[in-house]
């Protein structure tokens, strides 16, 4: 064995996986079982008491899911990870470890529409209060900090316009405030951006998008960077205080730099229950093996499509950070030098009606509410994903009435451009 550290593409294929010890199966098997037999009564007791690691019940952990967790932790450069049923489940589980009723967290205003809804409405019923800040104005994060602030939440490449967030600048604000920075890295994937390298303490993903990559399986994951000290000032009692459900152990003291991932598993997933099906874990693992190849193709195609649109007379503007003229191009060069992702927006001179008409004329682009599929996708956010927002909030989040969002797939770029040309021209 050489002592060379494996590169990203090698990790994408191998991290966390070994040939199955009993059958020799080379692909990771789907351990489609709810529960696991204990060796004896002592073994069972030590598993339940967190004195030993092992399998108990698939709501808490499963060997197929464990390979996925190890692989994504390796790709993101974290200490440990926890797979859950969806990206939204990941967000609930993360914040449940950090916030008590009445606490606040600061979130960037440019976010996936579903996250805006989840934070504004569902989380309010838990007593968790979101305070919005503007990712283009770092001082708005500083001004939003109060003694009740427990976390900051941003997207690395932000929905819907594909804008790039200055992760390092916001991580400095988080450090000063003594709170962890959570980065939703769904649109970048670790192939383009590794937020932990830029100061993130927790990374979350919707595995449903580029990581799974084929539009066939929902999933979510939480990656613990192992960087945050949870013991200071009694601010994070789930991690620092004795846990009555586990004989009074303190998770930070017992598990050190992967205590947050453990808390998410044994306090969050165990009790809230959003477990990932091992079948979905298998599908997503298979997708991850080709992540570097797919992601590069997604980015190259997106750039070609953005350039075509920027030159088209029916198009008013294109918001793609990979274009040299874009206001996020400097940040893209710094944070995502291999490519600025494949999700971006453009606006049409004909406004709302032109947006609706374009979506109906496209043939190769599927009109649906998803991103990060091998197939090219299109949506008109103002009439769909962002329709719950009022007009001012739509514009602030980059989803004004004239805006169309693309998720560019891995087809031949000439075919994608021809489809857009016929739909725009007709
Ligand atoms: C899709 C998405 C989510 C939510 O993930 P689900 O798997 O649909 O629950 C969160 N953040 C971003 C950026 C997304 O694109």
Principal-axes geometry comes out as globular
Biggest pleated-sheet summary: 7 strands, mixed
Query: Strands across the major sheet, in which order?
Result: 1-9-8-7-4-2-3
Look at the structure and name the CATH superfamily of the largest domain. Answer: Type I PLP-dependent aspartate aminotransferase-like (Major domain)
Number of helices: 17
User: At the third CATH level, what is the topology name of the largest domain?
Assistant: Aspartate Aminotransferase, domain 2
State the end-to-end CA separation. 60 Å
| Spans where pLDDT lies below 50 across 5 or more residues | none
Bound molecules: pyridoxal-5'-phosphate
> Could you tell me the mean pLDDT?
95
From the 3D coordinates, which CATH architecture of the largest domain would you assign?
Answer: 3-Layer(aba) Sandwich
Number of domains: 2
SSE-based structural type? alpha/beta
